[in-house]
Design goal:
Blueprint lengths: L11 H12 L5 E3 L7 H9 L4 E3 L8 H8 L1 H23 L9 H32 L9
Parallel strand pairs: 1-2
Length: 144
C-alpha cells in the first residue's frame, strides 16, 4: 500500500513491483480498471514479465485494442477484477471501511488490515456453518 493518495496511473507499476518483492516473481495476470490504463503502464508491466495485462483502455479504442479486450483471457480477468470490486464494497458497507477511524497512513493501513481480517473470519464462519448444515442434511440458506 502506498502512502498518501497517488493517481491511479502511478499506482499500477508499484503494485506489480510489490508483488514481485513479496512472491519472488511477477504475477501471471495483472488487471485493473480504466483509471490505471496508460500505454506505458501496459508496456512496462509486460517488460516486468507479466504475461497478461488486462487494463481496459479509455476512450475510443483502436482496432487492435478492441480485439484484445474481446479475447477470452481478458474478459475472464475483468470478471475476476469485478469480484474484487465487490469485496471492496462489502468491506466498505458491512465492515465500516467507508470511514477510517485511525489517523495518518500507518493507522489507515492498520484499519484496512483489521477490516480484511474481520471479513475473512465472517466468510470462514459462514462456510463452516454451510458445511455443517449440509453434513447434517439441513437446507442450506445463504445470506445476501
Amino acid at each position: 500500500m502506498q502512502d498518501g493518495n497517488p493517481a491511479d496511473t502511478r499506482s499500477f507499476l508499484p503494485a506489480i513491483a510489490q508483488h514481485k518483492k513479496t512472491f519472488g516473481r511477477a504475477p501471471r495476470t495483472a488487471t485493473a480498471d480504466r483509471g490505471f490504463h496508460s500505454a506505458a503502464n501496459v508496456r512496462e508491466a509486460e517488460q516486468a514479465e507479466v504475461k497478461k495485462v488486462a487494463v481496459p483502455a479509455r476512450g475510443r479504442l483502436s482496432q487492435k485494442q478492441a480485439e484484445r479486450q474481446k479475447e477470452r483471457w481478458f474478459q475472464r480477468a475483468m470478471r475476476w477484477h469485478a469480484g474484487i470490486e465487490a469485496r471492496i464494497a462489502t468491506l466498505k458497507h458491512r465492515f465500516g471501511m467507508a470511514r477510517a477511524f485511525y489517523k495518518n497512513d500507518r493507522g489507515f493501513k492498520r484499519f484496512v488490515g483489521w477490516s480484511v481480517i474481520a471479513q475473512n473470519l465472517v466468510a470462514i464462519a459462514r462456510a463452516k456453518a454451510r458445511r455443517k448444515a449440509t453434513r447434517d442434511g439441513q437446507q442450506v440458506k445463504r445470506a445476501a
